[in-house]
Design goal:
single chain, 233 residues, alpha/beta, Rossmann fold, 2 domains, two-stranded antiparallel ribbon, 7 helices, 15% strand
Length: 233
Amino acid sequence: MTTPGEFVALLGPSGCGKTTLLNAVAGFVTPTAGQVVVDGEVVAAPGADRGMVFQHHSLFPWKTVIGNVEFGLKMRGVSKVERTAQARDYLNLVGLAGFERAYPGELSGGMQQRVGIARVLVNRPRVMLMDEPFGALDAQTRLTMQELLLGVWREVRTTIIFVTHDIDEALFLSDRVAVMTARPGQIRDLVTVKLERPRAAAVIATPEFMALKARVLVQVREESAQALSGPRP
């Protein structure tokens, strides 16, 4: 569904299977039919080549910020000196230099999610999976995080699969948006977003953006109505 370094968003009504699809790619669940293949390899279990950023940060509350970011490297046997240096590099990348010794409970929601992003990226995954990572944030923080994510992505060029309910967010971030049908979820449309990069928030007000939004909104509303009326026969 993606090419290396691409940013793809999954959009669709509640219950259509967006998170389940993400979990299958991550290796957290096993498909009942078919296979998930990443770079030619069948996914059978979680692996360091696929990292997940959840809606709720899932950080270890008893570990410092740098301890959380280092954790995956520590489990892989990377030396203390090397993993600390790498963790600091990625904390710098997400704008958290100076917060290495803070604990998650001392951070704002946006800062916690930045730690989560750094914790995934320090392992240099082929694919970063993001399950509504900004859904719990206020509107201004959410926009700030979207812009930060695009800046980080330009630096690392990791493939991203991003689940969201927000049409603006999907179009602003992505190269392509996969619009899913109501349950059982299938790909109804794959919308190519040809908006120029790098993108700033002002792009949301452009005619090109509004035309894409109108196309996607019609489909999402139809599928949401279908979800309320019951599963397809």
